[in-house]
């Protein structure tokens, strides 16, 4: 698993997807840059989300709010007081950790044992088992599961009550050691606010303390009435937004999974109070369908309902994805009640109410939120796509099986040789197709090597121009995933690519 993750990181660098930020200065920790291919993949994921959420829903509209907001926003939202991580230091190694992550990692190890037991039994009996059913019928494995449940429940309760001494007690009871040095000599647990501060204004006395937004959602809440009125929106309706968010994360060791500067894709759906259960179920199902439509494997997703709810929520679930380091949160779906709008009403002194003509009454709407990290989605797609394949002739190929709709380049056009007029024909094909698709052109090296390069780049189709093309106006199309080749007319190419990228 570690090996796979290392390959993902090095492939992302080698093929121009993701670079460490400020690499020539030895990098900035947990900050990354998207390179020539990465920026295309990221844009395509963002577009795929936007299309599903905004274009396909006539009651959801977009917004692009600023990163900088009035500082009272973050008092109202609760971020100034409560957007904290519980930190613990190891006295010997002087390393700092998130106490909740140490405990979760401990539980993940027990979870691994369960997975191994299931795999062993499946091998022995030659059939596949439903994990939950297997656990419930097997006393030893059930014991593991119960241990995980007890630990997480206790952690949830103590963090919920800000009872940080019990979090420390839990770490000591479980004999959790510093992952780097093995030392078990821990300090007290302390809360640490994750927001980045900055200043607005030139002179020191008059400067205003601001924060870089830690989530995009608040830009939507404060604009709720502006959008509702100017767009004449009727409840239920949604406001969707993609954009940067910033968190001073402490545990930042998982590549683009947890970054200090990242991008969110959020949608707040404003509803009538009392209908939140129905809409919670609706958006759970709708978002899961969106994920599954990409074909990354249905078995790689699961819901994780929260037992410990944030102060603003009356129901919450995560869509978890199987990353190379295990199942982790990819998207959150939260029933936020009227918490945020009410808070903003209180702090701003302005009413944020909706007049419901059918009910002939005003109310503060409830909110259902879907919130997904674009970078985390990138990692899900990219790590799932990266595969090493054994070929018939005992060689291996590295192939990035990105969903065609998300691939940076939809096709690469390759002249078989760099002479005899083939590059000119190939270039003409690129020029005709590039109006509708992102098309690569590659004429360096033998064609076999160019195929491999495009495989590793994630390009779904290669189009090869050879000497026969000059006579029959046909080219060879090679499919990345099956390596099948077929001869087609040049004028068919547009439709072939279109068919490939349609989902
Ligand atoms: P986590 O528990 O992993 O810290 P969270 O529960 O704090 O995440 P939310 O505040 O619900 O996350 O944010 C919504 C989504 O934003 C997450 O599901 C995740 O995809 C993404 N996200 C949150 N923090 C980060 C980060 N530091 N780097 C990249 N993506 C992030």
TrEMBL record:
It catalyses: tRNA(Gly) + glycine + ATP = glycyl-tRNA(Gly) + AMP + diphosphate. Residues 146-415 form the Aminoacyl-transfer RNA synthetases class-II family profile domain. It is found in: Cytoplasm. Keywords: Aminoacyl-tRNA synthetase, ATP-binding, Cytoplasm, Ligase, Nucleotide-binding, Protein biosynthesis. Substrate binds at residues 98, 215, 262-266, 369-373. It is an enzyme of class 6 (ligase). The keyword Glycoprotein does not apply. Pfam families: HGTP_anticodon (PF03129), tRNA-synt_2b (PF00587). Its EC number is 6.1.1.14. Gene3D superfamilies: 3.30.40.230, Anticodon-binding domain, Bira Bifunctional Protein, Domain 2. InterPro entries: aa-tRNA-synt_IIb, aa-tRNA-synth_II, aa-tRNA-synth_II/BPL/LPL, Anticodon-bd, Anticodon-bd_dom_sf, Gly-tRNA_synthase/POLG2, Gly_tRNA_ligase_bac, GlyRS-like_core. Its main location: cytoplasm. ATP binds at residues 247-249, 257-262, 329-330, 373-376. GO terms for molecular function: glycine-tRNA ligase activity. CDD domains: GlyRS-like_core. Homodimer. Catalyzes the attachment of glycine to tRNA(Gly). Belongs to the class-II aminoacyl-tRNA synthetase family. PANTHER family: DNA POLYMERASE SUBUNIT GAMMA-2, MITOCHONDRIAL, GLYCYL-TRNA SYNTHETASE/DNA POLYMERASE SUBUNIT GAMMA-2. HAMAP family: Gly_tRNA_synth_B. This is Glycine--tRNA ligase. It comes from Bizionia gelidisalsuginis. The lineage of its organism: Bacteria, Pseudomonadati, Bacteroidota, Flavobacteriia, Flavobacteriales. The gene is glyQS.
């Amino acid at each position: 698993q570690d090996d796979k993750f290392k390959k993902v990181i090095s492939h992302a660098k080698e093929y121009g997807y993701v670079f460490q930020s400020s690499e020539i200065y030895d990098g900035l920790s947990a900050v990354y840059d998207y390179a020539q291919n990465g920026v295309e993949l990221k844009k395509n994921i963002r577009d795929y989300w936007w299309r599903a959420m905004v274009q396909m829903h006539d009651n959801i509209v977009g917004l692009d709010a600023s990163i900088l907001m009035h500082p009272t926003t973050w008092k109202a939202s609760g971020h100034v007081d409560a957007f904290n991580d519980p930190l613990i230091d190891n006295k010997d190694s002087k390393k700092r950790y998130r106490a909740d992550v140490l405990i979760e990692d401990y539980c993940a190890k027990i979870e691994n044992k369960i997975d191994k037991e299931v795999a062993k039994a499946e091998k022995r009996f030659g059939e596949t088992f439903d994990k939950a059913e297997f656990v419930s019928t097997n006393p030893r494995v059930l014991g593991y599961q119960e241990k995980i449940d007890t630990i997480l429940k206790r952690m949830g309760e103590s963090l919920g009550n800000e009872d940080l001494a019990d979090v420390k007690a839990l770490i000591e009871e479980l004999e959790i050691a510093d992952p780097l040095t093995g030392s078990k000599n821990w300090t007290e647990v302390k809360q640490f606010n994750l927001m980045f501060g900055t200043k607005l204004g030139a002179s020191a006395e008059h400067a205003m303390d601001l924060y870089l937004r830690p989530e995009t959602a608040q830009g939507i809440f404060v604009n709720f009435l502006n959008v509702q009125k100017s767009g004449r929106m009727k409840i239920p309706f949604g406001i969707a937004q993609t954009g940067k968010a910033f968190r001073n994360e402490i545990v930042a060791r998982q590549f683009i999974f947890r970054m200090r500067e990242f991008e969110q894709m959020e949608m707040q759906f404003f509803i009538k109070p009392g209908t939140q259960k129905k809409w919670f179920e609706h958006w759970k199902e709708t978002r899961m369908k969106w994920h599954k439509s990409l074909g990354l494997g249905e078995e790689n997703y699961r819901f994780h309902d929260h037992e410990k709810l944030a102060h603003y929520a009356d129901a919450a679930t995560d869509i978890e994805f199987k990353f190379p380091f295990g199942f982790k949160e990819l998207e959150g779906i939260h029933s936020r009640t009227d918490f945020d709008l009410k808070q903003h009403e209180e702090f701003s002194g302005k009413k944020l109410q909706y007049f419901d003509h059918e009910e002939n009454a005003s109310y503060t709407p409830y909110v259902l939120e879907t919130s997904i990290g674009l970078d985390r989605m990138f990692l899900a797609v990219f790590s799932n796509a990266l595969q090493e394949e054994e070929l018939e002739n005992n060689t291996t190929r590295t192939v990035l099986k990105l969903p065609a709709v998300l691939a940076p380049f939809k096709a690469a056009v390759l002249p078989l040789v760099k002479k005899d007029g083939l590059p000119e024909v190939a270039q003409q094909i690129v020029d005709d197709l590039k109006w509708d698709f992102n098309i690569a052109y590659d004429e360096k090296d033998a064609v076999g090597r160019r195929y491999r390069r495009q495989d590793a780049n994630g390009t779904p189709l290669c189009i090869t121009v050879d000497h026969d093309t000059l006579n029959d106006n046909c080219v060879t199309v090679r499919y990345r995933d099956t390596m099948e080749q077929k001869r087609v007319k040049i004028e068919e190419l547009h439709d072939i690519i279109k068919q490939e990228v349609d989902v």
